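Handout, section B. The chain below has 471 residues.
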Amino acid sequence: MNPLGSPFDVVFSSEYRAKREAFLKQIKKVTAFAMGDTNEMIRYLPLNPGEDTYTFNQRPKLIRNIVKRVLSEYLNGVSALPVKRSVSISTTRVVQSIPDFNLNPFVRNYDSTKIQTRMEIEGTVAIKPIIEDGEIFYQVFGADELVPVVDEKTGRLIQLGLHYKMSGVDNLEVWDRFTVSFYENGVLKSTNPNPYFTIPLSIFKSSPHPSNFWGVSDLTPIVDNANTINRMLTDLRQLSAEQSFSIYVYTGPLPDESDRTSSEPSAGSEPIKIGTGRMLTLPQGGNLKTVAPEAAIEAVNNVIDEQTRAIYEDALVMVLEKGSQYSSGFSIRIKKEPYLRKMAQKRLSFGKSEERLLELAVLIADVEAQGPSELNPDFKVKVEFDESQLTPETAQEDLLYDQFNLTNNIVTPVDLIIEDRNVDRKEAEQIYEDNKKINNSSTVPEVSVSVNGTETMMNKSSMPANQEPYY
């Protein structure tokens, strides 16, 4: 059990408040880098030793959106892929009451990209389906709003507290399998039976930990490294300017503070004009000369590129080497293999959480319409990701893959028609039967075919005996 006790005890402990405040600061920083907010990222740039804020603010900044690129790759690998959602067995009361049941009403207000974005930034989010005006919506709770109580031996979630503020009120919902309690500003307002007989939230985790409620963000570890690179880029830009133009260097006794810059020379000093309307006054015996520094800009740039590449490699995101070219798609696949494995893990975890979420949405709609009910174990939502978008195949590979599946009865021609034409099974079956009739008909329209350079007219009757018609 949680050593601090119930979610109520946790929320009002000083330890929880301190951890939450630190966590919110971290989330704010990761969000700035993940969203590519340049102004916010500049605020996190560290000062060099001996550098004052004024000097730093005068420097031009150079920012690279490394974390945003990594997040984009993760989103493209999961949420941006075509996703097929289906119901395997329709046996709940709400399903039985709708003859042509489909998931469209339950996914209408569901934005998987936004959910995955928060999940990648915070590591863990929880989604709760709610009904407003007869329509399903999804309430997202960030990691800072979750207060779990977990059995330490089994890892099973026993209670889940939802701590959030609304209209200035400090709210806390505490859910377990049988009851739900509501607190406002620390005062218990009500305790009611749980009409769903389950905690009605689905937990989404960036990188699930096998024995921990919390997921781990893949973006947090790379933010500080990306910040260091942005500081190096800013310094590199300054070095480029210093190498491109001569710099005034003064040697000799230091002038008084009042004499360092003036529009008129002071007595006993030598005026040097440094800009329109401005004079630099130097004490007698001082010396001013110009130098042209030779900064190792290329070497610094190579270090930055190497460190940037290391960040992408740690995040398992593929980047091309400078001047490199791949001879075939197979080479790219080999290079992308670590990324593809990571995306497979993310799709598995995200898909299971999404299945749980949509099953809860159907359950909550059922309870809203019919009264308290448990989730029917025979009702399952299936989420499938189209991996071809990650590993595009050639036309030859597609044909071989389809032929193998047909030969080994893994799929049927109807399945291929559904995939190719994006129609439902009823329409696909009709298309298949129509094509079958045409292909088997003796009145197949003749088509012009080139055989050894000679045009000839062919239909099914003139096909070789061993050639099967293609449906």
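Note. Residues 246-291 form one domain. Compare this with the example in section A.
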